[in-house]
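thought: fold this chain, then report.
action: predict
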Amino acid sequence: HRFGLIQECVRSYDIVVASGDLVHARRDNEHAELFACLPWSCGTLGLLVAVEVEMVKIKPYVHCRYIPCTSLDEQCTKLRDLSLLPEGQTPPFLESTVYSRETSVIQCCTPVDVSWYDWLFNVNRVN
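observation:
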């Protein structure tokens, strides 16, 4: 949430285009248009062979709160409200999994430190 979608952390792509050329696409080079189009291309622009991403250091675990939603309106309202909380209160990780037109689950996750005891006995190993 704080860092955008995963493609917003990409620094560059190496892609083999239809001509067989290997292209190094960045935001700020002659292939900037290709760079912008790649995340939504579904593989139609070439064969992606490498990605350089900016890593963000976080704590080793995340505490997740799951919010079930039973309508599209409820999901949109809750996501908007969570996204617009004051600085420091917005969840660092905010995602939603949609199961049907009316059913979804919002995941609000916060990085946490966990003691060895808690990891051994209290950490849920299932996402």
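thought: worth noting. The longest helix spans residues 72-83.
final: tokens above.
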